[in-house]
Amino acid sequence: DLRPETSLRILWEHDFWGSNLISNTSHKSYRPFTVLTFRLNYLIAGGLHPVGFHVVNIVLHSVISVMTLDVFSVLLGGLEHDEKGRQRNRAPKASFLAALLFAVHPIHTESVAGIVGRADLLCALFFLLSFISYCNAFRKYDAEGEFSFHWIFASLLLCAVAMLCKEQGITVLGVNAVFDALVICKMDILQLGADLLRKDTRSETSLPWKRGFFTRILLVASGGVALLYGRWRIMGTGPPAFTEVDNPASFADSALVRAINYNYYYSLNTWLLVYPWWLCFDWSMGCLPLIKSIGDIRIFAPLVLWFFLIGIICQALCSTNTDERRILASGVTLVIIPFLPASNVFFRVGFVIAERVIYLSSAGYCMLLSYGICTLSRQGRRFKSITSIAVTGLVILNILQCVRRSHHWRTEEDLFTSALSVCPFNAKVHYNVGKNLADRGKETSAIQYYREAVRLNPKYVHAMNNLGNIFKERKELHEAEKLLSRAVAIQPDFAAAWMNLGIVQNSLRKFDEAERSYWTAIKYRKKYPDCYYNLGRLYADLHRTVDALNAWRNATLLKPSHSLAWNNLIILLDNTGNLAQAEAVGKEALKLLPNDHTIMFSFANVLGKLKKYKESENLFLKALHINPTIASYHGNLAVLYHRWGRLSLAGERYKLALKLDPASPGIAENYNLLKKKLEQVKEG
Length: 684
What we know:
Layout: H1 8-11, H2 32-45, H3 50-77, E1 80-81, E2 87-88, H4 92-103, H5 109-113, H6 118-136, H7 141-144, H8 149-165, H9 172-184, H10 189-198, H11 213-235, H12 255-274, H13 300-318, H14 322-336, H15 361-377, H16 381-408, H17 412-422, H18 427-439, H19 443-456, H20 461-473, H21 477-490, H22 495-507, H23 511-524, H24 529-541, H25 545-558, H26 563-575, H27 579-592, H28 597-609, H29 613-626, H30 631-644, H31 647-660, H32 665-683
Helix pairs in contact: 3-4, 3-6, 4-15, 6-8, 6-9, 8-11, 9-11, 9-14, 12-13, 13-14, 14-15, 15-16, 17-18, 18-19, 19-20, 20-21, 20-22, 21-22, 22-23, 22-24, 23-24, 24-25, 25-26, 26-27, 26-28, 27-28, 28-29, 29-30, 30-31, 31-32
TPR repeats: 427-460, 461-494, 495-528, 529-562, 631-664
GO molecular function: dolichyl-phosphate-mannose-protein mannosyltransferase activity
Family: Belongs to the TMTC family.
């Protein structure tokens, strides 16, 4: 989606992962504005160069950290304006401390260092802009009781932009509504409840509600409904389908088990805010086993969370200090409301814990922490000294953890292995470590991690598929067949495993079974060029020439850059004597892949047999210019010169070929024939 050749229109039809939104397999994450920024990065850098992507993420986090200063000044100090309409900051130290704590919080490392975290950063940027715009609507409210419709509409528009960066952006409407009630209308919830119970609408606490509050809430609610309706229409076929390994608690049969585990997840998210030294790139697949018994000691974690949360809420409701009521209620609001889309309350989500989704909620935590620190520092000189030292130490520790965690994100190897100590029971962690090792050629170590992934999750078909591929490459074909058969038995629509099973069965000379496996793979993935290529190889082994040619032609139609399929087409047509057709295919292939030396080599052989020596020579020389170390290229060019009658050039090429591959019997035999011919010429 970020490549220039892709139409911009397509971006509005795809989810964040590039699938069509109306597809049943779509993730339904609709973030076109985020993808547009990736596309701009690609355009400026001229390709997939990571530095530019990281620079933008760092700049975004820096801008957001500065913007939180304005947000915290409103929530901590209240919204006041001078006679010129400029905002006053009544809590400069507290708001600066909160912004500083937010800027260096290690929980943000995933959003900043991970490229896809751009969605959370852009969403947060426009979330804060929407909130600030809502605040701007009240510049004349204190003096004249007026508010600006323009700024409220601007706030709604920015909310829509935030939502097009990430779905979480819509939660700013809830924050704005609570802000209006607590800060603008200075609502006392307990007093209001008492008034409503007494049906006393003449109370002083009811007066602020008559100054346009319901009009503003109606505007905000209408905007929210419109955005949700638009999002629902865009989503097409309904919510995404997640599996049990993505979010096991949501698949629990008992509502009580689901509720307990959801609350356990909330407590862990809170713990990551308080103690961000226990970070992991993935928390699924057994990382957090379900709490199924009242005797599980982990059940105390949600109890502790709710103990503190209820305590803060009670203080926010009952405090006689209006500033404290506003600050505590605003802080809790900023923690909870942005987190709601990830809470499993309204719909199932595709993860257990994701550090990136608490990027915005961390602002509420930093605000509450700053208020607590400032409150302690006012208890006397001793407390002020202790809190100053503690804050300095906390900031330094957070910076060090940011550096440490950012280092983990520099390479796949460091990121995946760092998770082993945090989530040793996570099958996906072991799978990723194994895949990274396999990509680096360390197959023996990779096998151990893949086996552990399958042990931890006996239905982990992707681990079975990759492990089967390693055994296939190591020629342990029966072990590979057993693993791949098990994978397709567990997940019958796993097209890649069916194709790999077909390759193994072909190697075991189980040709009928291999053919069935290939066609089953194509049944589940209609556009599967690699499978058509392997099917063509099977047909070629069975001397079913027409079927092989059709299979390879399908591969090239589905993937015009499929070099192996083009090459095999040319070679098979050459071997069966269809030289004119081979020439036509060679020309077509080189138009699409003008720098592919393997196609040049095969096509040059065809032209040589057609006695188009000059054209053939040019292609051989171009192929050798690209890759001069392949003995067969020199050897076949020598054969061409031999046929052409340029015997001295043929001799030079044979020598070069034998130098590169002295053990090649074909080249040595041809060279001996040339030497005999040269002797005959001399004698004649």
